Amino acid sequence: xxxxxxxxxxxxxxxxxxxxxxxxxxxxxxxxxxxxxxxxxxxxxxxxxxxxxxxxxxxxxxxxxxxxxxxxxxxxxxxxxxxxxxxxxxxxxxxxxxxxxxxxxxxxxxxxxxxxxxxxxxxxxxxxxxxxxxxxxxxxxxxxxxxxxxxxxxxxxxxxxxxxxxxxxxxxxxxxxxxxxxxxxxxxxxxxxxxxxxxxxxxxxxxxxxxxxxxxxxxxxxxxxxxxxxxxxxxxxxxxxxxxxxxxxxxxxxxxxxxxxxxxxxxxxxxxxxxxxxxxxxxxxxxxxxxxxxxxxxxxxxxxxxxxxxxxxxxxxxxxxxxxxxxxxxxxxxxxxxxxxxxxxxxxxxxxxxxxxxxxxxxxxxxxxxxxxxxxxxxxxxxxxxxxxxxxxxxxxxxxxxxxxxxxxxxxxxxxxxxxxxxxxxxxxxxxxxxxxxxxxxxxxxxxxxxxxxxxxxxxxxxxxxxxxxxxxxxxxxxxxxxxxxxxxxxxxxxxxxxxxxxxxxxxxxxxxxxxxxxxxxxxxxxxxxxxxxxxxxxxxxxxxxxxxxxxxxxxxxxxxxxxxxxxxxxxxxxxxxxxxxxxxxxxxxxxxxxxxxxxxxxxxxxxxxxxxxxxxxxxxxxxxxxxxxxxxxxxxxxxxxxxxxxxxxxxxxxxxxxxxxxxxxxxxxxxxxxxxxxxxxxxxxxxxxxxxxxxxxxxxxxxxxxxxxx
Length: 711
Description:
Shape: globular
Distance between the termini: 61 Å
Number of helices: 3
Strand content: over 45%
Largest sheet: 22 strands, antiparallel, barrel
Radius of gyration: 25 Å
Structural class: mainly beta
Number of strands: 39
C-alpha cells in the first residue's frame, strides 16, 4: 500500500506564513488577555505560552459558548490535532490527540490534579479547557501518549460580577445557567463564586431525552499578602439514554445518505438512561516563601457513581448460521443484548505538594520546581447484565424483550501511585533556554472479579524524562526542540487462555521528538510543529500448536512492534480590529511497524484521519453585531484494522451571529447559529472497540440560540 506524501506540509506552511504576514499589516488593536493561556497545573511552567517549548491550547469559556460546546467532546470542532474516539450522545467523552486515544483513566486533570474521565464532565463551572499536545510523561506517571486535557475551574474574580444565560437547541433542549462572583471583607480578602446550571436534554437524536444539573461553589481567602487558601466543590448529575452506534453490513460500509442520523438504535421499550452522579472537591494553599520561592499544596477528591445501561448491538448471527463478530449482518440485522452495570463507584483522591523558585548553579540561573504527587483510585462494581435478547435491525424497527438478570461478573480495581518530579528551566544566554523534566513513579495495581476470581496484583517503578532547548530568534519568535518519554503499564488478564496470565507486562515507554516554531503577540499567535511519536504495541500472540487464542495456554500477550505517528501541525490565532481567525491544520502519518506478523506492518490505525483542517472566522458587520463562520474538514480514514474498508472524508460548515449591546448598566449577548449548515451526511467517525466496528453519523443541521446577560 502506498504511503501518503506529506503534501500538507506546504499547505500548512503557507497557511502559517500567509496568516502571519497578513497580521503584520493589521491595525493596532487593544486585546484583553491572551487567547492561549497555559496554567502551571497543566504544563508545569509559569512562562507565557509563546515562550514555552511545547504545544498547548487553552479554550476559554466564552469561546466554547460561542460554539455551543457543553461537553468535552465538543472541542473536536476547534483544533485539528484533536478528534473523536467513540463519542456517543449521553455518554462520556473520548478524544484522540495526534492519532492516539487519550486514556480516560489517566490523561485527564482538573486544576492539575488527576481525575477519571469515565463520566459526564460538566463544563458549566469551567473557565477553560486546556489541551497539552505532546509527551504526557512530564505531567503524568502513567498515561497514553500525545497529550493531556485539563479542566480549569472558575474561581472568584477580582471584581463582583453576575452572569445569567438561557439557551435553546432545536427540538427541545433548554439550558439555564447562573454565574455569580463576589468579594467580602474589609480588604476584600474573601472571595465567593457560585455556578448553577440545569438543562432539559432533548437533542435531535431521538430517544435521548434526559436532564442534567450542576451546582458548584468556589471560595478563596487571602489570609495575608503571602498566603492564599482556595476551596471548591462541585456536584453534577446527568441522566440521559446513550446512543448505540451503527456498524458495517458484513464487509460493506453502509451509505450514510441512506441512514437517518436522528435514529438511535438504543430505542427499546426497556432502554434506560445512563446516570452519572459526580462530586468533585479540592483544597489548595499557596504560600510565598523567602526570596522568590513559593510553595503549594493541593488536595483533590472525586467521587463518581454511574448506572451504565444500553440496548447493545454487537455482532450478528445470520440465518445460515454464519457469525459476524466485528459487524452487523449484510441484511442489516444484528444481535442485541441487554447491558446493565449499575451502582458503579469510581473514587479518586490525590495530594500534590510542590515548591518552586530560582537558584544559582554553575553561574547559571535555574528556575526549579520540586514536588510529589500521591494518588489513590478505587473502583467498585456490582455484577452486570449482558444477556442476548434477540435480533435487531438497522432500521430500528425491531422490538425484543428485556433480559435484566445479573449474569456476568465485573472487575474491581485499586491503584496507588506515588510520584516525585523535578522541573528546571535554565537560562543559558539571554536568548537560549534549556528545559528539563524528570518524574519517578512507584505504582501498585490490584484487580479482582466481583466473585473473587481472577485476582491480579503487581507493582512497578518507572521514570520519565523530558528535555527541551529553545532559542528566541527574534523578540516574538521562538524556535525549539524537545524530546520526552511517557509510560503505560498493564497486566496480562488472569484468564486461562494466556500462558503468562496475571503477569505484569514490561513498562511500555513511548517516545516523542518535537521541533517547533512559535510566535505570540497581542495581535497574533502562531505555531508550526513537526512531531514523531513511537509507542510499543501489546498483542495477543498465538502459540505454536494452536489454531485460535481460546484454548488454555494458547497465547501470550506481549509487546510486538510499535505504532509510529509522525505529523506536522500549523495553527494561527489572529486578532484584528473587528474580527479574528482561529485556524489549524494537521497532516498525520500513523503506521504500525516492527511486528513479528509482517501482514500488520504498514497498516494505518482505524478511525484516524490523516488530514484535518479546522477554522473559526469572526468579523464585525455593524456595531455590536458579529458574524461567525466555522469550517471543519476531516480526511478519509479506515473502519477496520486491516485497512480493507475506507471511510470517506467530510467537510462541514457552521454559521452564526453574535450581537452585543448595553441595557442600562448591563451587557446583553445574543447568539444564534446553525451547525452543519448544508445538512451534510457522512460518517463522522469509525471507532474500533472490543474487536467490533462502529459508525457514528454527523449530526444533522441544527439550530441553536442563547441569551447571556452580564449584570
